[in-house]
Each structure stands twice: as structure tokens, then as C-alpha cells.
Amino acid sequence: MDELYHDGNRRLQDRFDTRRLADRIEERLLRDTFTDEDRAFIESRDMFFIATADEHGMPQCSYKGGDPGFVRIVDEHTLAFPSYDGNGTYLSLGNLLVNPQVGILFIDFQRPKRLRVNGVASLHEDDPLLEGYPEAQLIVRVQASEILPNCSRYVHKLELVERSRFVPHTDVPTPIPDWKRREWSHDALSAGDPATAEPLLPD
Fold first, then answer.
1. Does residue 105 share a domain with residue 82?
2. Is 161 domain-assigned?
3. The domain containing residue 24 runs over which residues?
4. What DSSP state is assigned to residue 197?
5. Which of 33, 50, 73, 75 could form a disulfide with 39, with the two C-beta atoms 3.0–4.6 Å apart?
């Protein structure tokens, strides 16, 4: 692992007298291998936030959702997750092709807890894990370089109402989002998109 802190971090740590605490956190909590507790936590999540940047450092932050277990710990250094059909812009995954550095944040809003995973991502269109994810376009694998639990005191407690009905399953047809049946988007859809066979919705 590289050093966790750079000059900007250090300047603020010194300004607010937190350098000793920051060093202790790095010493005690930072790791680059997933523990059994990490695996149980990550594989129970149904969403996460992912931060990427392009070759110029311009950032993107995105939400990814699925069924619990859609993120898997492949080995002690690697996690993997599917990429499902989205809006076709590939803002996050496209960034990974030109700058593979990635930051992921997992949060449990019901029993407040959070975990950061930073690492290097790669995209795989023929990954053997694809068999376990209906309709996934590819698999993203992240080689972890920094795994760091975070204090949960500012995580708001939320209760799950309903998971998205658009997450693909093998035994249920995946609904088509209404925006794909609007005139502004319908003629621009990719070849083979199921929405192209659907009638337009009125604007």
C-alpha cells in the first residue's frame, strides 16, 4: 500500500491537530485484504456508491444497486460486481478504461456502518461470473489497495421500503423503464434493446 495521506491531508491534520489520530487510524484500521467480516458486510449490501475520474482528473460519482450479494468478494484482495443496462453513457465505467483508480463506499443505513474500498478496476466481458448475473453486460473487478472502515455516527438511519423492480432476475421479465419509450430517446436506443419493440408513450 502507498501512504494514505498526502500533503493536503497533512496540512489540515496539522491545522486541526489530528495528525496523531490520523496516523493511529492508518496504523490500526487500514488494510489491503478483505477480512471475513468485510466479506459478510459487502456481500449483504444491495447498493454502493462509486467514484471515478477521467484521464484529466474530472470526477464522477455514481450509485449502483442490485440484490444483496450482487457484489462478491472473489479473493482476499478482489471484489467484483456486474454492470447492468443503464442510460448508455458509461460515465463511470468509461472512466475506468482511461483511469482505473476507483473509490467505493458501502453503507448500511439500518444498522449504521460504512466501509471504504479503494483500488484498481478492470472490465471483463467474458468473465465466468457473468453466468450468475442475468442481463449483465460485463463484470467489474476491483483489486483493493486500501480498505478502511469509517465512523458511522453521521449515517442517518433509514428503513428499506422496496428494492428496485428493474434489477434483472432469471425468473421474472425485467420491466422497461418509461423513459426508453419516450419519443426523445426511442429512436436512439441501441440495436436489440427490448424497448425498441414497445409502443411510444405520450409525452
1. yes
2. no
3. 1-30
4. G
5. 73
